[in-house]
């Protein structure tokens, strides 16, 4: 009985840790926490209504992902991603997602095509209405759905663990490109996918992400 209780406690701690990690990523990307801001375990535990253990696990994951820095005797602070790190991250994302797009084009069904088209239409509508959060949400859905349809479990796992989709929002915040243009660019990915053109889908996704990188770096330059 005690062993079962211990297993349940570990499971709950892991669930809480993932939820806290996701929320902190969202807070960092939405600039509720800025580079240099301190994250205090006890304060976060009180905020989320949990013990410090799941908070500690969440912070460890964020440090591994490069969002924060944990230094002995100095504490935990939000770190600023360098231009080189952002370039590396989006370059890796372009490789993974372009391959996923190629696989998606081969096996996508008509029902799945219609679902992706609906997501793109909603993304464009959100952009027209100036709703950044909703546009970002549909952007995440679009990329996640392509990865899901691809059926490639390792890409899905890597994408989830590294939270590539979340960095799309960084592009949306700092990009030098018009938000409506960003949303409409997804139509260029849809065309080869609808035609079951695997090579074309790979190329379109790669160009989409690398163009985002170029725009992001320009936006960061302006911000600096």
- Helical/strand content category: mainly alpha
The percent range for helix content is over 70%
* Rg for CA atoms: 19 Å
Order of helices and strands: HHHEEHHHHHHHH
Put simply, the count of helices is 11
Backbone shape: globular
Characterise this structure.
- The protein has 224 residues and is mostly helical.
- Strands 1-2 form a two-stranded antiparallel ribbon.
- It has helices at 2-29, 41-48, 52-65, 83-107, 110-128, 132-150, 153-162, 164-174, 179-184, 186-194, 198-223; strands at 68-71, 75-78.
- Helix 4 runs parallel beside helix 10.
Spell out the blueprint of helices and strands.
Layout: H1 2-29, H2 41-48, H3 52-65, E1 68-71, E2 75-78, H4 83-107, H5 110-128, H6 132-150, H7 153-162, H8 164-174, H9 179-184, H10 186-194, H11 198-223
Antiparallel strand pairs: 1-2
Helix pairs in contact: 1-3, 2-3, 4-6, 4-10, 4-11, 5-6, 5-10, 6-8, 8-11, 10-11
In short, what is this structure?
The protein has 224 residues and is mainly α. It is 78% helix and 4% strand.
Essential attributes:
224 residues; 4% strand; globular; two-stranded antiparallel sheet; mainly alpha
């Amino acid at each position: 009985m005690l062993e079962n209780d211990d297993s349940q406690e570990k499971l709950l701690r892991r669930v809480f840790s993932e939820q806290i990690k996701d929320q902190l990523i969202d807070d960092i990307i939405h600039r509720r926490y800025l580079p240099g801001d301190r994250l205090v375990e006890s304060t976060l535990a009180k905020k989320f209504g949990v013990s410090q253990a799941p908070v500690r696990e969440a912070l460890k994951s964020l440090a591994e992902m490069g969002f924060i820095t944990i230094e002995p005797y100095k504490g935990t602070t939000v770190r600023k991603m360098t231009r080189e790190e952002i370039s590396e991250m989006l370059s890796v994302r372009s490789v993974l997602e372009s391959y996923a797009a190629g696989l998606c084009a081969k096996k996508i069904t008509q029902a799945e095509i219609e679902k992706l088209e609906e997501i793109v239409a909603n993304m464009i509508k959100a952009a027209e209405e100036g709703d950044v959060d909703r546009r970002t949400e549909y952007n995440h859905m679009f990329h996640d759905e392509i990865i899901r349809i691809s059926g490639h479990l390792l890409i899905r796992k890597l994408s989830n663990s590294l939270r590539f989709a979340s960095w799309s929002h960084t592009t949306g915040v700092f990009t030098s490109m018009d938000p409506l243009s960003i949303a409409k660019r997804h139509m260029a990915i849809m065309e080869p996918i609808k035609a079951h053109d695997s090579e074309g889908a790979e190329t379109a996704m790669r160009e989409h992400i690398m163009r985002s990188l170029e725009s992001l770096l320009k936006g960061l330059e302006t911000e600096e």
